[in-house]
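Exercise 3.2. Students should predict the tertiary structure of the chain below and write it as structure tokens, then compare their answer with the key that follows.

Predict this chain's 3D structure.
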Amino acid sequence: PCYIISDDKYVISANYTGGTISVFGRNADGSLTEAKQLIKHSGSSVNKERQEKPHVHMVQFSPDKKYVFANDLGTDKTYIYSYNPNEEHKILVLKDVVTARPGSGPRHLIFNPNGIFFYVLNELDASLAVYSWIKDKAVLIQEMSIAIKEEGCKNGAADIRFSRDGKFLYATNRGDAN
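Answer key:
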């Protein structure tokens, strides 16, 4: 596991190496149940070293908690699952798939404070994709690089956050072009 979200009922993890999402119930004492659901992604993308198979890197609730978004670096996709907390086994049901530019490697995402836009930081090409999120539909509205353009520089975009006042979006790049 490389990323975990939770609410009062479930703990959901993104599992990078296995390319899966696990959903666990929460017991009253804080311990976890056995996995209630295991979702395995399939596929690959153009970067044969890093995208040879699925690599689920992050899970994130939508602001209204009706959906769980899952970035898969290995398949260049963001999967959008309906979240059904009152179900026992089909807690996450696939609703939509957003395909990123080949070789970009979706890593992290964040919603803006009003929940109308979300931003996907792509690790492999250090790009940032901006989507509108209106009426439960994702629409790409902009893409840009967060890295300087230097010959031979390696990228490794990592995290994305809003400032406390919501006015600024910060994205990090761990590559040598940082």
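Discussion points: The mean pLDDT is 95. The first strand starts at residue 3 and ends at 6.
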